[in-house]
Amino acid sequence: MIKDLLGSLRLRRRAPKTEPDGIERLLVFLGNPGPEYARTRHNLGFMAGERLLAHQAGARFRREFKGRFWQGRIGATNVGVLLPGTFMNASGESVEKAARRGRVDVSDIVVVYDDMDLEFGLLRIRSGGSAGGHLGVNSIIEKLSSPDFVRLRMGIGRPPERVTPVDFLLDDFSRSEFPRVEEMIDDAAAAIVQLLNHPLEIVMNEFNRRSSRC
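RE: above sequence
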């Protein structure tokens, strides 16, 4: 599905910014750096960002803005893809640097992350609002001095009884969970592509409703 979307982008878009380093949309995927965190629940954002970039021919992350960064075109949109390397609770440091350098308005930033308050397997897209207890999102709000960016939340559900939230977040997904995790990652990447081409409300209606039927 994501390959089909990426190969068929022919829709009208806003005119690109004229600044030399201007980025039309900054796509931020939250997680923790290091192989020990690669398959953990708190790295779901990183998984989605890596999946999105894997479908861009020849695209490679480089070290920049205290994280891994790629700038290029997805369809006709000039985007920056950022995976902060600051660890989750300081994600805003990386996002602030990329947004300032790319001259990106807060409303043109999309942040993708895991959410314990959302049922496992569901996606939710919205703009603005509180951090909902997510420390990575809270860091971004503080550094940007605004909550008015788009959020794509990926549900991981609540921890089982007698498991602390921290242990739950930093534990790997179980083998039985991974088929649905793969679906979520693909759906998140597809939703990002749609956000580059359609108004937020249309994408929210499609993916929020589709996710509810899963």
